[in-house]
Backbone:
């Protein structure tokens, strides 16, 4: 079940249309704006629903890289968000390495 449109709009407004994980600003370009999603900080699989406290603005990439990750061992909101940002940064680095592996042969072929 997706987040209702009016709640999505409320979350984006609250977060100033900025991804809470990587700070991508949806107001800077149409492309950025279109990548904004709503993320459940504590994934739905853990029983949380669409409470406003559990929903944040996230760009598509961060939302995908985070997936169902949640540091269950932490209880402080600041620590949770810091841990999630670190997780996404690690995943982004691994993802970038995969990207380089894919594009390197292409780049070498056009020299």
Residues:
């Amino acid at each position: 079940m997706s987040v209702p449109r009016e709640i999505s709009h409320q979350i984006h407004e609250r977060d100033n249309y900025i991804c809470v994980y990587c700070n991508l600003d949806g107001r800077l370009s149409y492309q950025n704006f279109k990548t904004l999603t709503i993320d459940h900080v504590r994934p739905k699989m853990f029983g949380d629903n669409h409470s406003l406290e559990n929903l944040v603005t996230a760009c598509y990439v961060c939302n995908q890289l985070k997936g169902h990750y949640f540091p269950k061992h932490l209880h402080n909101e600041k620590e949770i968000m810091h841990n999630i940002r670190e997780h996404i940064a690690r995943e982004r680095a691994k993802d970038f390495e995969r990207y380089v592996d894919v594009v390197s042969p292409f780049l070498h072929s056009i020299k």
Q: What stands out?
A: The chain has four helices and two strands.
